[in-house]
Write a structure and sequence with these properties.
Elements lengths: L2 H22 L2 H5 L7 H24 L10 H16 L3 H17 L12 H24 L23 H4 L5 H24 L7 H18 L3 H4 L6 H33 L4 E3 L1 H27 L7 H23 L8 H23 L3 H25 L7 E2 L2 E2 L2 E3 L29
Parallel strand pairs: 1-4
Antiparallel strand pairs: 2-3
GO molecular function: DNA binding; zinc ion binding
Protein name: Xylanolytic transcriptional activator regulatory domain-containing protein
InterPro entries: Fungal_SecMet_Regulators, XnlR_reg_dom
């Protein structure tokens, strides 16, 4: 069995065990928290579930022998698959190393340039897809780890994947190019988001809202260009799950961009015992971020109910934690400042229900042996503790609204971007109104 095939077989084994484990779980396990005391039993059960798939995968990695002096396209494919599977299994630095090797070899082979016309049409299409896959794996993993990608070019010399001029028989050898193109665009816009957040953390930043508006407009354009089925869902597996993952990644870009600002407000409220009003810009930012978290949380709950959540994977855990963190921060801010968000009583009740169910899913993932989920659950508990402190400030006697004869004095809160660097990053990253520029009124 060829090495790429062995790695694929191992990955399929892992996926099939995920699906079997998910199918065996009752809906009740999603709707209520699982006691952590049974973690040993859960770990043993998860080890048994994953043993076959992991065995093949580890055997494939042991046989991984890349010819760096005379690399082939197959070598790039094998490294892409190894990197992707390592990240799913929370081996993030291994994934980063494999991704870097993959995209460098692909660049060295010239896969980022149009293929020679001497090659068959089928092979040219294949080389293009392998390049863009390496590009996406490199970008996804590096941005998640806050590290530089191995390939910093834009790949502008090569157009997006397509199936033009392929026969019907040849098309059967490829997955449709539309969703891969959507992932490429999401990787590109996520890079813009990371760069924007970095700019906003600089002490000499000027016109921060203009910088934010430009990035939000870029996200809006990206959302318009994504296929409609990304948000409506595909017809069947695996397309429906791929569409859900793309929607999660798109919404996560909004959270990654706006969460630092939400954290700034949260920290401000913790440190200042005064009544504040939020500027229109901050109010808008807060609502966009909250809507993004709601959207992703709902997608993940639907996946859990359908048995399509990758309980032992990193990405679903990260997206779930990110959404829950925003939801609990928003709830604490509303307790302290009822007008911090545009919410009705029904919205708040729905958010509380979503949070409760989402947290139960994260607890269950941690209980069944997901190492990333255990880390995310610990981080979420820390956020909850800070939220409890903020709620207590509102309820305690030391909260002192300042009143004067003309009414209650307030302080309008603006962004102090110099303080961003001191805010603790909470690792990991749905947008309301796709097709609507949320900052158009500025």
């Amino acid at each position: 069995m060829a090495l790429p095939s062995l790695l694929r077989f191992g990955a399929c084994g892992v996926y099939n065990h995920y699906q079997a484990a998910n199918s065996a779980s009752s809906d009740g396990a999603v709707a209520k928290a699982i006691p952590i005391e049974g973690s040993m039993e859960g770990s043993l059960r998860s080890e048994e579930m994953l043993s076959t798939g992991l065995g093949f995968f580890e055997h494939g990695l042991a046989l991984l022998n890349i010819s760096y002096e005379e690399p082939t396209v197959d070598d790039v494919e094998a490294l892409n698959l190894a990197s992707h599977c390592c990240y799913i299994l929370n081996r993030r630095m291994s994934a980063y190393a494999y991704a870097g090797q993959s995209v460098r070899l692909a660049h060295g082979l010239g896969l980022d340039h149009p293929a020679p016309t001497s090659l068959s049409n089928l092979e040219r299409k294949h080389r293009k897809r392998v390049w863009w896959t390496a590009f996406c794996v490199d970008r996804m993993i590096s941005t998640e780890l806050a590290l530089h990608p191995a390939y910093t070019g834009l790949g502008s010399e090569l157009d997006y994947p397509d199936s033009s001029s392929l026969t019907d028989e040849e098309k059967e050898q490829f997955f449709g190019p539309v969703l891969l193109t959507a992932l490429i665009k999401l990787c590109e816009i996520k890079g813009d988001v990371v760069n924007t957040v970095s700019r906003l953390k600089q002490n000499d930043i000027t016109e921060p809202y203009q910088v934010l508006r430009q990035c939000l407009q870029g996200l809006d354009r990206c959302g318009r260009e994504l296929p409609g089925r990304v948000f409506s869902g595909g017809d069947s597996l695996p397309e429906s799950r791929i569409c859900s993952s793309l929607a999660l990644r798109y919404h996560q870009c909004y959270i990654m961009l706006l969460r630092p600002i939400l954290l700034h407000q949260f920290t401000f409220m913790l440190r200042n015992k005064r009544v504040i009003t939020l500027s229109d810009e901050l109010y808008t930012i807060s609502n966009i971020c909250l809507q993004a978290a709601r959207s992703n949380a709902c997608i993940l709950l639907e996946l859990a109910q359908a048995g399509e959540l990758v309980k032992y994977g990193y990405w679903d855990s990260a997206h779930l934690f990110s959404s829950l963190a925003v939801l609990t921060i928003a709830q604490s801010m509303r307790n302290h400042h009822p007008n911090a968000f545009r919410c009705t009583g029904e919205d708040m009740s729905r958010d509380a229900d979503t949070y409760s169910k989402g947290r139960a899913v994260l607890v269950h993932m941690a209980y069944t042996g997901n190492l990333a989920s255990r880390q995310h659950l610990s981080m979420l508990e820390e956020v909850e503790r800070h939220g409890t402190v903020l709620s207590a400030l509102n309820a305690g006697s030391d909260t002192i609204p300042v009143s004067v004869s003309t009414g209650e004095a307030t302080t309008e809160m603006e962004l102090d971007f110099e303080g961003w660097a001191s805010l603790r990053s909470m690792s990991d990253q749905a947008a309301g109104g796709v097709g609507v520029d949320p900052f158009a009124f500025l």
